[in-house]
Specification:
The protein has helices at residues 10-30, 36-43, 47-53, 57-83, 89-104, 107-119, 124-133, 135-151, 160-171, 173-180, 187-205. With 209 residues, it is an all-alpha fold. The longest helix has 27 residues, at 57-83.
Length: 209
């Protein structure tokens, strides 16, 4: 959260963005124990300027997470708009899974997730900030997409919350587990996981005609 009545105007916005960008790099490299002095130096501003924009390091971290996840959420909105005209539910879900997977395994977002995981014991508030700005919003967007497909008679889901977790489990979570230990799946296995995961999901939720 930015500081109330903080700096405004184009110059202030440029400084703010420089701080957030630098903070993301510093946090990933140094961990959450990195100082605001380090962030200020990396951003090329004074520590006073950093505190003019962000009251605490937690506020700054929350903004880093929010911006890192923002592109993924925008992409999901574009996916919903793109899928509005298709009647091929399998193609729709394959497209959705691939978009979500690309966002989840983006190196910068994966590094941020691993930072949060590594710091949870000492700084549990980081996990809450990450969950609220990242996974929780993605889950909500996917639930809305499922609602769209149900409304059009393409899916039949009684418990959307469970269906969202199942979809992530079948298509996304294996890659996050591998990424947490520095691994990744070969491209052909990645594609098989996506297609098989979507087909399993549809075997449960495709509306019977």
């Amino acid at each position: 959260m930015s500081k109330e009545n903080g700096p405004t105007g184009k110059r202030a916005e440029r400084s703010r963005q420089a701080i957030v960008t630098a903070a993301g790099e510093v946090f990933v490299r140094e961990g959450f124990e990195a100082s605001m002095d380090q962030v200020a130096a990396a951003a090329g501003v004074s520590k006073v300027t950093v505190y003019n924009h962000f009251r605490t390091k937690e506020d700054l971290f929350t903004e880093v997470v929010g911006q890192a996840m923002g592109e993924a959420h925008t992409t999901m909105a574009e996916v919903r708009a793109h899928l509005a005209g298709t009647a091929d539910v399998r193609d729709a879900l394959l497209h959705t899974a691939r978009v979500l997977l690309a966002a989840a395994t983006d190196p910068s977002r994966l590094a941020l997730r691993n930072l949060v995981t590594g710091e949870l014991r000492r700084f549990p508030e980081l996990g809450r900030a990450y969950q609220e700005r990242g996974p929780a919003r993605s889950a909500s967007a996917l639930g809305e997409l499922f609602g769209d497909l149900c409304g059009r008679g393409l899916l039949e889901i009684a418990d959307v919350e469970v269906a969202v977790i199942q979809f992530f489990s079948l298509t996304i979570y294996p890659h996050l587990i591998a990424g947490s230990i520095g691994g990744e799946f070969p491209r052909d296995l990645t594609e098989r996981l996506v297609t098989e995961g979507v087909d399993l999901f549809l075997s449960r939720y495709r509306r019977k005609r």
